[in-house]
Structure formats: C-alpha cells, structure tokens
Request: fold
Amino acid sequence: MLNQKMGGNWYDNCDDMVRNEVSKIKKYVPGKSMDEVKKEYDLDRVIKLASNENPIGVSEKVKERINKVAANINRYPDMDSRGLKDELLEKLDINSDMIAFGNGSDGLLKVIAEVFLKKEDQVIISYPSFVEYKFVSQLMGSQLIRVWMNDYIQNIEGIINSITEDTKLIFLTNPHNPSGTIIKRKDLQVLLDNLPEDLIVVLDEAYYEYVSDEEYPDGLDYIREDYPVIVLRTFSKAYGLAGLRLGYALARPELIDYIMRARDPFNVNKVAENAGIAALNDKEYMKKTLENNKKGKEYLYNELSKIGLKYVPTEANFILVNIKAHDSMELFKKLQSSGIIIRPGKLLGYQHHIRVSIGTTEENEIFIKTLKKYI
Ligand SMILES: *Cc1c(COP(=O)(O)O)cnc(C)c1O
Reply:
C-alpha cells in the first residue's frame, strides 16, 4: 500500500527484492510441444524424438492402477510412499533408510543442492552435460567448475585435477546425456579412490535400465561399500512415466536422512506412487521397451552409416549424431517443419550434432526418410 501511495508500482522494482542467484538464472526454454508443431505447420502427425521419453506408450497395468487410485485423490498421499518403497527395497535388496523419492530426479537434484551447497562451495560438472546440474548449483549461489568432456567421454582425470578444498559436489551422468557414453567401472573407481573428505559424488543413472555394456558400474555397489555416492534413478525414461514425475535417490542412511528433512513432505503424489508400483511389476512392458530400443538402435546405426553420418554408440535410448557441416538449428527447424522434433546439438553444447531419441520402428523409419531429404 505504502509504495502505491508514493506513486509507484512496487512490482516495477521487485528485482531488488529477489535473491541475486535467482535474478541471474536464465529461464529454461523448452522445445515446442507436439500440438504446437502440428498447428504451426498444419501437419497430421508429429513425431517427438526430443526428450528421450519411452516411445511405446503407457503400460496397461499403469493405466489400470491410475484409474483405481483416481477415486482417492481427495486424500493426501502417503508421505513415505510406503507401497512403492517396499517394492523397490525388495528389488534392490536395500534397507528402507537408504532411499528417498522425489518429484522426478530433477526434484531430487534440487533437494540435494539445498541440503549440501553453500555459497562458498564449488560444484564440478562436465561440459557439456545435463542442464539441471548447473541450474540447481546456480540457485544456491555455488561456483560451477566445468570440465570439458574428452570428445564424448566424461573426463575423469580432468575432474580429479579440478577438485579443490572447496569442492562439495561432483555431478556425473552415467550413461551421459547427451553423448550416451558410460563411465566405466575402473574409471569410476579411480575417481572414488581419489576423493578428499567432505565431497559427495552424485551419480545420475537416469538411463540405467538401458545399459548393456559389461563394464558399466552399478552405483548402488559403491553405496554398499560406503563410498560418498548418491545415486539418482527415475521412472521417466524406461518405465515410461515422464509425465508423472517420479524419481528416487539411493545413498547411505546418513545422507538420505538429510534429504528427507529438506524435501517437501508430499513431494511424490499419490498417482505417481501407484503408477510406479504398477510400472515396477510390468515386466512385459520393460522387456518390450528394451527390445524396441535395441532394435531401433541397430536400425538407426545402420541407416545413419548408409547416409554417411557418424554417431556416438549409445548405452541409452538416444543417439548423438554428427551432422558434419550442417547447422544443427537449421536442420532442427527443417525436420520440425516436416513433423519431426529432435534436439539440436547447439542447445546441448555439441555444435554440428543432433540428439535423437530412439522411437518406435515406424517413427525411426520416418525420421530417417525425412533426414535424407535434408542431408
Ligand atoms: C531425463 C533425465 C533425467 C530424468 O529427470 P526426471 O526429473 O526424473 O524426469 C535425469 N537426468 C538426466 C541426465 C536425464 O537425461
């Protein structure tokens, strides 16, 4: 009231009221939705291969369970997601104090930052890497140290050399997004054996279910051996629940305890919890998902080679493709005008690349056919 009486609109100067860290953050710019693209280019059909979602649709078991739980959403969810927790504890063979759920891994990344990051701390990330690590670190005002990838592989030696006494968190992605490559067991071991005290490694395993490389380390093994590791997994990718926002963190009980204190008490909604239970139990859906991914991967490798395009062999459900001299934004726009949405490498830190999610057989075929028109 006072400000208005003095003749001003208080909101013209509300910048002054905002934390510096927030003023500095650039808003996340998402790609156009399928509906928007459909409308803009007057298309009958749009194929989205941009966000590494599960292309085979929603599990029937999940749909059934969601319908059932709908009758109860006037009630708050169970704060501990007991039902889902019990399923996962059994599957992973861990104790109940070693797991925390979140509103997607994104939600957990934010809680982890809120728990651990002080202004004077440094955070090490690879460059390029998943944008969320940068976002949550900036939000807390911590200093980001970027370590360039060795082409497509996370540079473990570089990361070790960048550690200072101020380093608090290291974010690793395994497999990496957007390259699709993994950190091998022996390399992760080297990093973990070279950590000073008071430093935590966050191991983001969003694409865990897709990996077939035998040298892939299971982050949970390191937690069992008491290394300072927090593993993040999600239901957004192989389990096909991206729209519901459900992820979990695994760590030693001491770390999980702090995460549980800092999170919103009801950070996982009832529909998501129930869908998660059904998804864990739909073995057929997971089998189909992995089969489709393998088949699509081989098809795309083959066809890309025939067009003369190099790609990074992937352990995930997307492929980073080198489009040579082509401009990734231009190619992105051309493909979009033909109804295919991919991620242009420019936005991901890889100029002259595109990242394409592996789709269904039909989607992959249409993608290749369309790509040929423009390459
Ligand atoms: C997709 C993805 C996630 C998953 O995020 P959610 O918030 O669980 O949907 C996390 N990390 C990486 C690297 C990803 O690519």
Remarks:
- The chain has two domains: 10-57+284-374, 71-280.
- The longest helix spans residues 283-307.
- The mean pLDDT is 96.
